[in-house]
Amino acid sequence: MALNPISSPPPRRTRQEEATESAPVCVLSFNSSDPSGASGLSADIATISSIGGHALPVACGAYARDTARIYEHFSLDDDAVTEQARMVLEDIAVTAIKVGFVGSPANLAAIATISSDYPDIPIISYMPDLSWWEDDKQDQYLDAFKELVLPQTSVLVGNHNTLWRWLLPDWENSRAPTARDIAMAAEALEVPYVLVTGIPLPDQFVDNVLTTAQSVLGNSKYEMFDATFTGAGDTLSAAITALLATGNDLGAATLEALEYLDHSLDAGFRPGMGHYLPDRLFWAQPTEDEESEDEQAEDATDDEPDSKPIEGFVIPSHDTKH
């Protein structure tokens, strides 16, 4: 009589293996450091983390700026950008890449070379307003972006006015270009999808349109805020990148990213004397109901706290002279 062979039990998985399967997606960001926390890598890291991803920030330079304006930008050497990105990409599985403002044509060339080695990773490119920059530097940067980065870009994100002036500089029609007009110009540079934001509408509304050269894929209209914000574009583009990295299709990722931005702006704050900034961790703030419950709980107890502040402790000032 033949006996059925004893089947071996499946190998036991370690906690490390289980943790790896549930680990957050990793999103690479090429951008610049912003000491005000308004835009750049600060915005990318906070947004990607808020959505549940793990940010891999590649510093391409640094702004000298406050919450009102940009005074200067200092670019890192393209070799430094390349080394940062290569070390990460050779070690970590990256599921999406964002390209923000990287400061120089040389850095754009480095990013194009790196990304060409990873053709299956989607690239979301964000073009900010560069009107603060010298005209010659701006022109060189925009031309290099067209030639080097746009052909590898999966989704281009930008404000209607910014993309219009960049991609359709010779526009002579009496009406403003539509999102599809901009997408047709982008398609000529091999960009398949464009998200055009801030299209003016009547009654203080703006439209945000996801489109190809052939058809509009979707749009979301929002009422304009009274406040002036800095960092909205970086927030939106980082959100789309992270949501695509988690497996959402482009339409769903775009709508969810726009909702995320709207909530971030609605909870925005003004840390300095300049513009308002998006609160990218708005969901972590207590709601009015939670605050009311906490106040009631404090009023309901007369017990002494378990710990008391140390009396007489004062942080000394750092007035050492050098």
Automatic annotation (TrEMBL):
Compositional bias annotation for Acidic residues: 287-305
Native source organism of the sequence: Comamonas testosteroni (Pseudomonas testosteroni)
Domain Pyridoxamine kinase/Phosphomethylpyrimidine kinase, residue spans: 34-276
Record keywords: Kinase, Transferase
Annotated segments matching region Disordered: 1-21, 284-322
Protein known as: Hydroxymethylpyrimidine/phosphomethylpyrimidine kinase
Keyword match Transferase: yes
Gene Ontology biological process terms from the UniProt entry: thiamine biosynthetic process; thiamine diphosphate biosynthetic process
InterPro entries from the UniProt entry: PM/HMP-P_kinase-1 (IPR013749), Ribokinase-like (IPR029056)
One Gene Ontology term of the molecular function aspect: phosphomethylpyrimidine kinase activity
EC number: 2.7.1.49
Keyword Kinase: yes
Gene Ontology CC entries for this record: cytosol
